[in-house]
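Do me a favour: review this protein, sequence plus structure tokens, and tell me how the chain folds. Record follows.
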Amino acid sequence: MYAIIKASGQQFKVKEGDIVAFDNMDVEPKDTVEFKEVLALDKDGEFLIGTPYVEGAVVRGEVINHGRDRKVITYKKLRRKDSKVKRGFRRDFTRVRITSVEA
């Protein structure tokens, strides 16, 4: 059984036991979180698609930790213009273990 959920402006395919890194959430480690915006659900071969969400479907997870990703470098250069821009950023994330997918 797996579900496609909407969280932090993105869509994720999750199943029970998965560890997923979401954008930074305002919860403490070892807390439980619920994702009620379930877009689609595969339940024993029966595929349910929501309009826009599947009624009564909930995905629960346990927060493992918070962290920061590796640095991503962006570099822009315009030829013959003597224009160069080099920037970098690190994304904050919250790592969540999916504990249950319920219909």
User: Anything to note?
Assistant: Strands lie at 2-7, 10-15, 19-23, 32-35, 38-43, 46-49, 58-68, 72-78, 83-89, 92-102. DSSP finds no helices and ten strands in the chain. The chain has one domain: 2-102.
